[in-house]
Protein 1
Amino acid sequence: MEKQAHQELKKLDAAKSQFIMATQHHLRTPLTIMKGYVSMILEGDYGRVNQMVKDKLRFFRESTEKLIRLVNDFLDISQFQMGKSILKLTKVKPVELVQSVIEELRPEAAEKGLSLELQQPRSLPQIKVDPAKFKEALYNIINNGIQYTQQGGVVVELKKNSALEIIVRDTGIGMSPAQSQQIFNQIFERGEKAKEVYALGKGVGLYISSKIIEAHGGRIWAESAGAGQGSTFHLILPLEKKK
Ligand code: ADP
């Protein structure tokens, strides 16, 4: 009896994940098309567009990008939950990867009057990662630094010891020791202060980021001296051994 129930549950779970994946695919395609057309209109491919319309179209494009990001996060979650290996690994320069995420987020930081700085050693070895997924994980962490900080800013530091370490420090709302343990495991759970400071948060970013980092054989954890004391996120990625 118990075995049969277990099998039924497993089947249901697989059906649910497949349903979610199919739905997300059908969401992502039209969203990507929408973003493409808005970009072409903004670039003047269909004629001159006045400044006021351009400003509104930029909001439209930003919202579409946010939706695409969310759909991607949900898609990743269901794939990880199905135990699928979803990484497409290639060799990349870590600085280029981190820099591209920082540049993507620079307008967001500038709008809040926050600094956003990269510190790096003179040379770093290449890393073997899935660039899109790795960037998604980094984006979530750096974006949190910006969203949960009201004054000061965010520093992203790259370091090499036996592994590659990426440290993201902010001067924001901080968190309790208990919270810094929980944030990677719980979906949709958010801190009270976090909801106040960043109403648009969804509580899925760190869960998916930690799954992505773990799938790369890495580790991620958070530290904070407490409320109002800022937070530091550490991300460790093993380096390939020299042959
Ligand atoms: P979201 O930011 O959308 O709520 P996340 O999974 O990225 O979802 O983060 C989960 C929770 O962890 C946040 O709601 C917040 O309470 C806390 N958190 C994450 N990053 C930070 C940070 N840099 N500073 C303070 N709290 C943070």
Protein 2
Amino acid sequence: MLDKITQLEEKRALALLGGGEDKVKQQHDKGKLTARERIDLLVDEGSFREIDSYVRHRVKDFGLDKQSFPGDGVITGFARINGKEIAIFSQDFTVFGGSLSETNANKICKIMDAAMKLGIPVVGINDSGGARIQEGVLSLGGYADIFLRNTLASGVIPQISVILGPCAGGAVYSPAITDFIFMVKNSSYMFVTGPSVVKTVTHEDVTFEELGGAETHTTKSGVAHVIGENEISTLLSVRKMMSFLPQNNRDTAEDNDFDASKLTLIPKLDSLIPDNSNKPYDMKEVISCIVDDSQFFEIQNNYAENIIVGFARVGGMSVGIVANQPAVLAGVLDINASTKAARFVRFCDAFNIPLLVLEDVPGFLPGTEQEWNGIIRHGAKLLYAFCEATVPKVTVITRKAYGGAYDVMSSKHIRGDFNFAFPGAEIAVMGPKGAVEIIFKKEIAAAADREAETTKKTDEYIEKFANPYIAAEHGFIDDVIKPSETKMRVVEALNILKTKVDKNPRKKHGNIPL
Ligand code: HXC
């Protein structure tokens, strides 16, 4: 027996080496951690239990029979993050550049299948040269097996992708289907075709980083959600984000202990919103006043900054915040803001995370660029997402709620549960200037002093419409609240809504405008 145990220990030691010491050194020399080091940083200390560490590929072509490594380029298993079980895979670049083989894909599918049965999140750490070229269609099939599982798991268990190296070609579509993509500066990149193919086809000169680096995908394309300075901070931010999530779509995120004595008025909020409705202010300051310990985990903070989305705890409860940002483009809704927020709303709804909407929106962005690129279709995504969401929805109109954007931003009409407005809120079809120029066009044209007439009509319009009370008279606003009362009222509302049950009609699935 002792011999057998020694043999086991040797096999274990070999599996831990991955592609060998030289390859580990190369990985470190590139400033990258190994697949196992990354898992150790991400999960609770000592909680990782690996499976399938003895799996090897079965390919004999291209001399691969002489090159075989236990584990075959991906480490898989179970672990805990913040005390909660997760399934994890981490591609091992030291073995054939982390490329995806048939057996390696089978390992990933195996833990994804288990995660679905167990109702636990899957975290995938990507660092791979793509399909293992020597295996041809077998590796392509492996990708398809993963894509199918990503799709079936979508909305059932949270799926998080962490890109810490190359992720190229069709391989990008697995992370793309998952809920959140984390990338690290300078050493991760995602693209469908690399710089050399781009050069051949479009004659553009572009570097790896410019084409598909972390900055690109968190500022330009919106493909990725969170950027980290280095691998350690990136992995730690995955842990942080997961503290706001439930384990699956039947679960709810755990409440934190909350000291109710912290629920006092917040006087700062009474003076934070400028009287002049054309003056910008930073909605993040409002968020910081409302969330517990000023802790807000922002998603896509450098993309479509005219809308803010992210997770926080409010009164100890995990919530998804969607907020217009008057400090950027006056908080207008455009294509990117709509798709960014729509995807976030749908994630929260799928995973029972209540939505808190902070609204200050002048409407949708006008212009040919927006119209020709489909603001109608993309804006409809956000409308659709809020309409179909059945989680608790609390909306606070801090200032402007104009036009279609009033309807879209979780209004009462589309099943907002508690809709509050500040006393300075302006709820109308459009802003005073535009409205007066249309409805009083003839009167203004006929007036001796056109400017005076415009001012008079604008004042009348503001007096009549630029307030929250007409909406409140109709019950479209549940209450007009002092800004300083916001946190109290939101926490009360979220507590009342804890037993909320709402349903959508039975259907195979809706047809969101894509
Ligand atoms: C087999 C691969 C590999 C692959 C890398 N390696 N990619 N082996 N299949 N796809 C091996 C290399 O041969 C090398 O082995 C080791 O991994 C490290 O690779 P290097 O090139 O030395 O590393 P580096 O210089 O860091 O470059 C990394 C890289 C490059 C940019 C990823 O390796 C590369 O361009 N690889 C090919 C990428 C690619 O075209 N993949 C197919 C995409 S199409 P040795 O033994 O020399 O150390 C695709 C289709 C998926 O994935 C479709 C799904 C629908």
Protein 3
Amino acid sequence: MTYIGRFAPSPSGRLHFGSVVAALGSYLRAKSLNGKWLIRIEDLDTPRCPPETADIILQELDALGLKSDGEILIQSHRKKIYEQALRTLLDERQAFFCTCTRAQLTKRPCHCYLETKENLPHASIRFKPLRGYTPSFHDELQGDIKVNLPDKFITLKRSDGIIAYNLACVTDDALCNVTEIVRGSDLIDVTPIQISLFKALHHKIPDFLHLPLALEANGYKLSKQNHAPAIFDLFTPQEIFIRALIFLGQDTSKINSNASLQTIIDYAVINFNLDKIPLSSQSV
Ligand code: GLU
């Protein structure tokens, strides 16, 4: 079976070092296994994702030599597909319309799943995980993992009509036949939800591999919300690539930033060693 991996950035800002680590980690894992690597733009949260940022991210990935082996999916163009997945879940009573406000939910549990509400345009749609929903899963880098399960009912469509990340992510990973999801450890907590969604939608469950996060000196994750600097403002593509390789514990002994990007990429793929990736997140 061909390995299929992916990188799925949310275009809420330009690439920062943390996003490069996730891109490169997933790319090297796929290429070292002779697999395919796909790019997907997760831009459904429109207020947070200005339209021009997706193009900039794609140019930046291209400048790093990281090219998608298939069509680049843009989630905002795929809303009908997510609506179909929602329909399946509603028809099979895995999902329900919920009219609780956020304030109500902080005071009392939601019981909307006990009623059959239909076609409420301003209600959210939530997921009731299947029996067997468990906080444990196997991670290909970190081993067996147990997380604190997030909220019992998971929002799949917000009351403002926006399709939530978990539904779109699972639907796309399944339709693209992704065999392993490699991404940052900040998404470990949602993995059990996603496993339950894969099952509820009758899809095969891929493997998961969570990479260490790049942290600021104060211990917070580098992120667009924390105003992490755009990495291309600081370094050349070769420097960025090598810094990310070092962060991922990979051998860089025979390359330096004067080499061509292609030389660096080829070296990194041939010498990729999963066991060298540190398990814990580190500040950069
Ligand atoms: N779009 C998510 C992010 O940028 C990543 C989703 C994923 O890899 O599953 O944080």
Protein 4
Amino acid sequence: MSVKKILTEPNKLLRQISKSVDKVGDAERTLMDDMLDTMYDAPGIGLAAIQIGVPKRIIVMDLGRDEDNKEPRYFVNPVIKNKNEEKAKYEEGCLSVPDQFAEIERPNSCEVEYLDYNGKKQVLKADGLLATCIQHEMDHLEGILFIDYLSKLKKSMIIKKLSKIKVKREIF
Ligand code: GNR
Ligand code: NI
């Protein structure tokens, strides 16, 4: 188990479309363990594999964030079914868009089909923060970030800020 480096915008890898997993084997489970370590360390409530540079359709999540009572969730090859027409707004953040937050509107509930840690097929009904987080993570698998939903001006301001921070990090 190890903590990996999280890629941040702007980075072309984050725009890549992730590939389906053929089989949930030991390599995938090791990846999921590392993703979870990385997510808890950050800390965050969800992480897609591409955020640590691996273009596989794998997501980990833990909404609890209670140190002593971890409730990790693993989603391999997730597919969203039955998005609710009703929308909900949440203040979203992203570990790949550090220190930036914005209200994003998404379907307020959905169903997701996926393979679990052991490769078993599962279906989950999600609402509230869980539904928001699943949709945010699913977007990562398509190379989409929450800032893509903002106006061009807001998005470009955020990318400009993040680019400046990157340049500073390279100097020091
Ligand atoms: O840690 C995270 N918090 C969060 C809050 C509101 C909506 C989505 C998220 S996901 C984010 C972690 C992350 O970047 N996952 O891709
Ligand atoms: Ni994110």
